[in-house]
Amino acid sequence: MTGPPKDEQPKITVTLVHGTFSRDAQWTDKDSDFSKSISHALSGKLLLTRFQWSGSNSHRARLHAGESLAAHLRDLIDTHPSAKHHVIAHSHGGNVAMYAMRDTSVAERMSSLVCLATPFITLNRRLIGTSISVLREFPNPLFACIFGAFLSFAFGTVGTSHWVVPGLMAIAAVYLLIRKGTTFLSNRLTARLRKSQDRLISHFSLPELGHTPVLVVQAHHDEAAWYLKVIDWISNLPYRLWSPRFVFWLAWGLIFLSLPWVLALTHLMIFGPTAFELGYSLEETLFTAFAIGLYALGMAAGLLILLGLIAQVTMAVWAIVFRGHALGFGERNIVENWLVHIAASADPPNVHNSDTKSFVVSGGGLRHAAYRDEVVRKNVAEWVAKVNTRD
User: Fold this and answer.
1) What is the pLDDT of residues 296-343, one digit of tens each?
2) Which end of the chain is flanked by fewer CB atoms within 10 Å, N or C?
3) Architecture of 6-123+205-222+343-388 per CATH?
4) Contact status, residue 243 vs residue 135, Cβ threshold 8 Å
5) CA atoms of 58 and 331, how far apart (whole Å)
């Protein structure tokens, strides 16, 4: 960027940043009513610039735009080192501006940042550990059924069969081995997923602003804010319903519901005429019945795993439909939505010097377009002028 001659160097620069789907937003033009309000309120030589980005409704588009905006602001700072620099952004353009503040060299030179009706990005960890703990607890109901079935079969052979006690010991040993293995796997998986959560939060979180003055302009009954809240509630409904406790009791319920008919069938084979007609010995009959019982329990376990997969796929599809679409929140990655709850807030996180003003936006059109309102324009211009007079 090339600036005017030295004697015409601006004392103030204001960069206007549009929001989603508004690459050619008229309010960012130098001849717009908004720009005229800013120019009228700020005394001294003023340079108004407009920053254009893709306007795509995705986190990665905003991250990329934030890097480009930071480069744009660095260029302004290098070209006009003695000027005071301000940024005014609308809607998700406010998140773009916040991402630009990740560059500390830019944030330190910003005299102010104004966010008009911005849905600030917020991130919260999902309870991955408790969800994965289902893997660790699953052997309990499974082997409880196996022990119960084995003892039930063995009642008729206690004192006559030499394999009952060794069989119980073998089942206990297998249980302890599997329990240890599932605990190890669940702990390792939880640790890896938490690292993924850390990476996502670090990647998408808005930066901390310690001293930069930030004006947050909120519009009463903002349609975009209401829409995002509804989308967020609907898209997270499966996560509210599919709780770890529900999965745990489902594991016990499925297996114990299958146990009565399994025991009835196997005892019928042991004590009924079928075994006699087939010429089975008591031990052969017992092993055959026990194998059928294990098969039935395996089917129950498989059904549980299938239900779990169906639930995860349902949540993924639900997230795609209600969050991944371009008209929604802009979140497209299934894994990201499962690991981290990415939502929007009317208040900026990690900002220590903010001023919030709320307005009833009048006139035609959406209330979300707060820059159209004359009162909003006047208040923003006066606030920027007041901040600009500070040392």
Assistant:
1) 666 666 666 666 666 666 666 665 565 555 556 666 566 777 788 888
2) C
3) 3-Layer(aba) Sandwich (3.40)
4) no
5) 6
